[in-house]
UniProtKB/TrEMBL annotation:
The keyword Lipid biosynthesis does not apply. Residues 182-312 form the Nudix hydrolase domain. GO terms for cellular component: cytosol. Pfam families: NUDIX (PF00293), NUDIX-like (PF09296), Zn_ribbon_NUD (PF09297). The keyword Chloroplast does not apply. This is NAD(+) diphosphatase. GO terms for biological process: NAD+ catabolic process; NADP+ catabolic process. The lineage of its organism: Bacteria, Pseudomonadati, Pseudomonadota, Alphaproteobacteria, Rhodobacterales. It catalyses: a 5'-end NAD(+)-phospho-ribonucleoside in mRNA + H2O = a 5'-end phospho-adenosine-phospho-ribonucleoside in mRNA + beta-nicotinamide D-ribonucleotide + 2 H(+). It is an enzyme of class 3 (hydrolase).
Amino acid sequence: MRIGESVTFGGSGLERAAHLRGDAQAQARLLADRQAGVLALWRGKPAVERGDTARLCWLAPGHPVLAEAQEAPIFLGLDAGAPRFAVDVSAWQPEEMPDTLGAFFDPSEQRHPQMPEGAAFVELRGVMALLSARDAELAAMARALTGWHAAHRFCARCGGASVPAQAGWQRDCPRCGARHFPRTDPVVIMLVTRGNRVLLGRSHGWPEGMHSLLAGFVEPGEPIEGAVRREVAEETGVRVGRVTYLASQPWPFPSSLMIGCRGEAVSDAIRIDRAELEGAVWVGREALAAAFRGECSAIRPARRGSIANFLLWNWLADRLD
């Protein structure tokens, strides 16, 4: 798919400068650079400045908000030569804690009293399609890495407390010497078609009316094509024949690589696995186009910025090849 990399989080050519991660002196110089910027994240929400558009809020390394961090900044890379870092400030306690934390979508925003005017910690899903390609790549990387550190503070080999290394791209265990690295989980997401129809599913707990493409984790020892056929059959009973690759999307919720594929269905009957899905339906092009226009109350497409929305939109526009 020629336009595959234009998907949100699809990459912007950031210079990740991996060769500088293990150089302590270089890291110190980068943090002292006058162009250096640090992205603070609270409970997975990046600091964003809102106005006519949305952009990440980059703080100077000595900014008071960053005093809430409990670990050293993570080096993200060089943005046109400017060093970029991320820190987790989840230790900060706002005056009010929303009851929507942990929901599928948390609409609440939190503003640290010392944050710049107009900046707040916001749900990345809500602004991902408004960010520039560079900001989206940096935000996805920062959210995935801070989430990995928060969930992997102890060694998987011996249970001892691990410590960050390599500018945040590794955790080392002082007790047994094990080294741990950020993980990305492969997930297939499939545009399953049969003639002029596409197969959509609805998961439990999703917003009212929301439907999306079927998706599932790739299992150990399983090829991508096999995962596509297995997941579709398990969740809906529909059998898939030919499978082709379309595009991929890093998905930092918490840290997956969505592998977008097209599958050609060889059967129609739907038999839903109620443990996996609330429902599934074949939708024609005309009905899907109406849903994108907001004219179909029964079906709402996946959120703009997701690869599901991207693939469905381009299927409607006949731009998948």
